[in-house]
TrEMBL record:
Residues 53-233 form the MoaB/Mog domain. This is MoaB/Mog domain-containing protein. Residues 312-331 are annotated as: Disordered. It comes from Penicillium canariense. CDD domains: cinA (cd00885). The lineage of its organism: Eukaryota, Fungi, Dikarya, Ascomycota, Pezizomycotina. Pfam families: FLAD1_M, MoCF_biosynth. One of its GO terms (biological process) is flavin-containing compound metabolic process. InterPro entries: FLAD1_M (IPR056596), MoaB/Mog-like_dom_sf (IPR036425), MoaB/Mog_dom (IPR001453).
Length: 331
């Protein structure tokens, strides 16, 4: 395989695991880069997953061209596994911004997911930026390249494309399978294939940064298939997740505020969060209890129903009268 790649073009990177010495000098990020090649990575890999962060990368999101649906999907995914999603950020396709954000998130959170910037064009700089963030180099991940050749279909506008012939199109495709590589970590732990019919790998950097594409269809499928890799590291390996109990109340928020303040102080030691959400234009508002102990949440239901003069519901609009949308009530 290496011989064939060398014939394609002299500047193609070598495969994962091969020696590569030519690289620009990189500044060392404080508190993030390891003192040895694998110290930080090994620690991050063994660390249980309690918290998560999401980094949405793309000028198109900040410019209003594209609506981000990946972070809400990740939020539901984490909620279902009992992972606390602590932060979501949207940043441009800018190397300095990516480096700063991914270093900070990797240092503070157990499970970091990035979305976007791993395509074939000049502005897709996520791989190279994250590699620089952790003092790594980009290298061709041969298994991904082989899967790409086997699973991707020729584009009708590239009828003469040849995998064995050097071309700008081939160079662009290779950008999508050149991943940040840590020589101290087995290659298969740095490029995860989670679906048999997809060539796109989930690149894992510094043990906890997971690089995903921005295309929602791909992002969602890869994330869902990543679950078996995450469950063993959860604080709750059985994957019971987090539970949300909703209550519909006819009272305005100002009326339930005193009771909810007392309730929140009482249940906080048990890991339960109390929320209150106005529903503008509706007759009923929503109160929530969120926690991992389902039995304890169940025990609170009678008290909360009395405290908010409402009922536990499965959907926010469950008790709405037909004419509810015609009225607006002060909070």
């Amino acid at each position: 395989m290496l011989n064939r790649l060398n014939l394609l073009t002299h500047h193609f990177t070598r495969t994962f695991g091969s020696a590569r010495t030519a690289a620009p000098a990189l500044s060392t990020p404080s508190l993030v880069l390891r003192s040895g090649p694998s110290a930080m990575t090994s620690a991050a890999q063994a660390k249980p997953i309690h918290t998560a962060a999401c980094l949405i990368i793309g000028d198109e999101v900040l410019g209003g061209k594209t609506i981000d649906t990946n972070s809400p999907f990740l939020a539901k995914f984490c909620f279902g596994l009992g992972i606390q999603l602590k932060r979501v950020e949207v940043i441009p396709d800018d190397e300095e911004d990516i480096i700063e954000a991914v270093r900070r998130m990797s240092a503070r959170y157990d499970f970091v997911v990035t979305s976007g910037g791993i395509g074939p064009t000049h502005d897709d700089i996520t791989y190279q930026s994250i590699a620089k963030a952790f003092g790594l180099k980009l290298q061709l991940y041969e298994p991904a390249f082989e899967r790409m050749k086997r699973l991707s279909r020729p584009h009708p506008m590239q009828p003469n494309f040849d995998w064995n012939t050097p071309s700008p199109g081939l160079t662009a495709k290779l950008r999508m399978v050149e991943l940040p590589f840590d020589p101290a970590i087995p290659a298969e732990q740095q490029g995860l294939f989670v679906a048999d019919d997809m060539w796109v790998p989930v690149a894992v950097v510094n043990g906890n940064v997971h690089i995903l594409p921005g295309v929602p269809r791909l992002f969602e499928r890869l994330l869902l298939n990543l679950k078996p890799h995450l469950v063993p590291r959860l604080s709750d390996p059985e994957g019971k997740g987090t539970f949300r109990f909703m209550f519909s109340t006819p009272l305005p928020e100002s009326a339930v505020a005193p009771y909810l303040t007392e309730l929140a102080a009482k249940v906080e030691p048990r890991g339960v969060k109390v929320g209150s959400y106005p529903r503008w234009g509706k007759k009923r508002n929503t109160v929530t209890l969120v926690g991992a102990d389902k039995a304890f949440l169940e025990s609170l239901v009678p008290e909360v129903e009395v405290g908010v003069q409402g009922k536990r519901v499965a959907k926010e609009d469950e008790l709405d009268p037909p004419s509810d949308s015609e009225h607006i009530y002060s909070q």
